[in-house]
Amino acid sequence: MRDQLAKLRERAGELGNHHRKFLGFVESHIEDLYARLEGRGRVGAVHLWTRADDVGAEMDTVLEVADGLESQLSCLGCYYSLQFLLMNLTAIDVLKIPLAEEYSRAVTYRPFMLHVGAQFRRLTASYMGRLLLLFLEGVQAPEYVICGVGTRSDQDDIDVGIITEGEGDTAGFNRAVGRLAAEMLRRACNLHFHLSEHVGDERYSASLAEYEALLGKEICDFVIISEMLGAAPMLGSRPLFERFVETITSRYFHHPDRDNRHHEGYLRGILGEIRSLIRGPRRARAIHPKDDGLRMIKGLISAEKVIHGVREANAWQILDRLKEVDSARTAIYRELESCLDFLEIFRYLYQMLVVQEEEIRLDDPDARQGLVDVARLMGYDSLGVISASDRLLVHYYECVEGARSLVGGLVEDVRKHLASTSVFVRMIEDAKDEEARGVPGKNFAVELIRETRFFRGTRYWDDFLVALEEDGGLLLRRFTKDIDRQPKRKRAALIEMYGELLNWDFVSNMTLVSILAKYHPEVVSRQLLSDVNSAFLRNLSRLACRGEPLVRFFHFYPDAMDRWLKSLGHDRQAQLLGMLDWDLCTEEMARAYSNLKYLIQIRCGSSRYFERCFDRVFEQRPEYLRGLDDWGKLEDVSKGVLGEIEQAETPDERFEKLGLFYDLEFFRVGLMTLAGVPVIETNGAFTEFSDTYLTTLFDVSRQEVNRTWGRSVATDDQLAIYVTGGHGRERAYDDDYDLVVVLDSDDPEILEYSRNVVRKMNAELAARGILPHHRFADYVGRFVVLKRELDEILGEDREDVFVDKSQILGARLVVGSSAFGRKFERELIQPYVLNRRDSYIKQMAGEIRSRHRQAREIDGELFHLPGEIPGGLDIKEGMGGLRDIEMICLICKAKYGLSVPVNLRFLDRVGKMDIGCREWVPVLKQGSNFLRSLRDVYRLTVAADNVVLLEYLGRPAAVLGFRSEPGMSAEVKLMKTAADWMTRMGETIEHVIDGIEA
What positions does the domain PII-uridylyltransferase/Glutamine-synthetase adenylyltransferase occupy (predicted)? Predict the structure, then answer.
């Protein structure tokens, strides 16, 4: 016997550490058991070292040789442990057989799992039956049946449901079951009484009457129903089990001629569960066979079971039956069966060989070594440099993805079935018909909430939500009107009831409020939307875990989430931001959390000017909401959209894609600005994409004119487009385009052609919210100015001609040849500006002095007075503002004959040209950078206005890194800094002018 025990101990090392518990029981009690068997001459009647065919009969023999209850429990537990270990070791040996015979590993999975499941169920049922008889001694038990309601092969615990009926000592019976549970936990495995705990007054059992009383009122937890539908009798009265099936579980099957309310409720519950599993998190460093695939597969199988009236309980048997009754989908069921086979044996072997846990950490060395053993038993070998365990994991992920796809497809069939049998179908159709005909009827909103009480706890209402938007929102109009026509108190109560649905089904409730936001104000009134949002946020704040469902909803429905966020307003958006309290566990959801938080912050702190841009982006490409934290990816997407323009089939498509490119890039650079990226980088990025946009817009517009004209007109080196103003100075976020379109030709056809192209460009710019300004159009009466006309305009002897010369001097070529650019400088800038620089500089200096005198004379809040903190500053036109900087730069450009753009790097060039400038260049450069940064941030967070107001500087101060201190808020610090810079730069500029004029 000692040799046998030593062999068992050695072989048990192949199993997981949890098997030591059973080995310990054997080592402690095997000598006593053997002695008792030997003493009674029954050693040959019991298999101690090999698998037994009739474990029940041998357990009876063990009980016969034992004396007293404690001895019986010890000997019986020893025998169970022996058989349990031998069962698992035999299973390992069986799996090795196909490897030797070299035939397909996959075909062995299903029969293997069916066999080990039946073996374990027979062993545990026999053990539990003997234990219960011992504990029931002297108890007049009621009629009972103990059902297995979980997976047969699960060895970490056994899910059971106990049903009773009739007279008897129920309390004594439950005490006996309690002792059974304790003994099973001690010597075998844990028993779960989930089914009975949720139905009856007793902890371990529930009567048929209790099932009837509870399930007749509401649908309850679909998990309980799934357990009932999967129940198989283990011990006790089979007639009672049959009555249970007839009176309780049969109601969940589809009956064409009966009330299918229970059937519908179960399907709503299971569909909601499947949806959450399909869209559940995918762990980056762990796998979870149950959550990754098994639960959704079995949920779908259970749904198909009640639809097609399949009475089998085991998943594989149900699939076999479904192949017969739903033969059109036989191939799909076979694929689903393959996924089930793989995942079940994978999970079973890992838990048997490694540890009885559901999650498998791939970064855990022990877990990885365990997968090596699993791969070996499942028939995987290394292939080149790819290890067997890696090949196993590849197939695991393929199987999970395959299961999600298959289940997702079959779910559509379940949805269609539900839509045809729902008790809500007639209610919805009647309400839509009444609304279409303008006929009053029952209050649909009230009737709907009443009807849903039976379905409390279910999580699938897509059919109702889809119906709301059908026929142009006809049902939604009726739904909202019926809410609004309720008396004030009843209306508030009704809205609160719908808000409480959040506790049942977060996704459906979020979808409802997003639909209300979508149809505001055409169908949904402002007051109703506000009241519903208030109720929703109140109920959301009461949830123990609210951040997680918000993040998940955003991850899968980003457009719906953003639509709802827009409806909240900044105060409620800030309130919602405070609810994102989820401690994330997956990389996928961590990024969604980051993007949602970022989105809310953007919504809370963005100007309408900026919102218009990203609203257009999100309306066309809501998937970009998931990538707010990846500027590089957004840029790649923008380039891809730009590349699609050539493939577009119609002019409208080309203009639409070009507009999307502009909005995407505007949004990307805006995010960079709000993240604190230096202004020199953001202005450079903005200029690059806006130049690309303008040149492409010219090309697309010319193509469209060619199409309408039926021919093209060659402009060669005769046409050019210059940008002036802010774009000419490479400044970001201007809401207009100052353009100079120059044609060096008197050909009427070329002129008319060019005018048509520019008119098309103007229309598209206006559609983007960009105002095209053509300064010289005031002189010539058209958007295209001839070069000879510019000669005349610039040569005029007018007091304000310096303004036109500044436009030309600050112009930057965007469309046109370099040859045209050289001619432009040679024949316009050189003779009219550079050759007359003294006159130009004098006029510009006089204009600056005049502006400063006017600024000092103004008595108001919008201009800085030394020693005060202003309520507002005009950072563009005010003394020492951006206009002053631009003018002094143009003066320097004329003085030194520079041909580079007047951008943020221009002053560096000036400093290198003249050593005398090095004192004031750093002041103007730093001050200019600061004011540009403030201007950009203010435009994105408050308004596209050059006047910054103290009361709105909270968000700009935060972006620019200003923090409050005792006695001074961040807003005041920012305003004071801006005012000080403007004062200093104003004084510096006057000093520079004095020096230049001297």
Answer: 873-991
List the beta bridge partners of residue 722: 740, 813
Q: How many CA atoms lie within 13 A of 446 on its CB side?
A: 14
Average pLDDT over residues 933-949: 95
CA torsion angle 856 862 864 867 (round to 10)? 110
> β-pairing, 360-361 with 286-287?
antiparallel
Q: Which of 344, 258, 272, 273 is nearest to 309 (CA)?
A: 258
Separation CA 347–CA 345 (nearest Å): 5
Four-residue CA torsion sign, 613, 616, 619, 624: negative
For residue 218, what pLDDT is reported?
63
Longest dimension (CA), the chain: 133
Predicted confidence at residue 157, as pLDDT, reads 87
Q: Which two tokens stand for residue 867?
A: 């020693």
Which pair of structure tokens corresponds to residue 889?
A: 């730069």
Contact 268, 455 (CB under 8 A): yes
pTM comes to: 0.80
CB distance 383 to 391 below 8 Å: yes
Cα torsion through 533, 539, 542, 546, rounded to 10:
-70
d(CA 108, CA 345): 10
pLDDT of residue 834: 94
Write the pLDDT tens digit of every residue in 206-252: 888 888 887 776 656 778 888 899 999 999 999 999 999 999 999 99
Band of residue 865 on the pLDDT scale cut at 50, 70, 90: very low
> Is 866 strand, coil or helix?
coil
Q: Are 589 and 552 in contact (CB under 8 A)?
A: yes
The three-state DSSP-derived secondary structure of 327-345 is HHHHHHHHHHHHHHHHHHH
Report the distance separating Cα 465 and Cα 452, nearest Å.
14
What pLDDT, in 10s, does the model give residues 580-612?
A: 876 655 666 788 888 999 999 999 989 999 999
Inter-axis angle of helices 506-518 and 547-556, to 10 degrees? 60
Query: Any residues with CB less than 8 A from the CB of 653 and at least 6 apart, and which?
Result: none
Among the listed residues 241, 268, 263, 238, the one whose alpha carbon sits nearest the alpha carbon of residue 252: 263
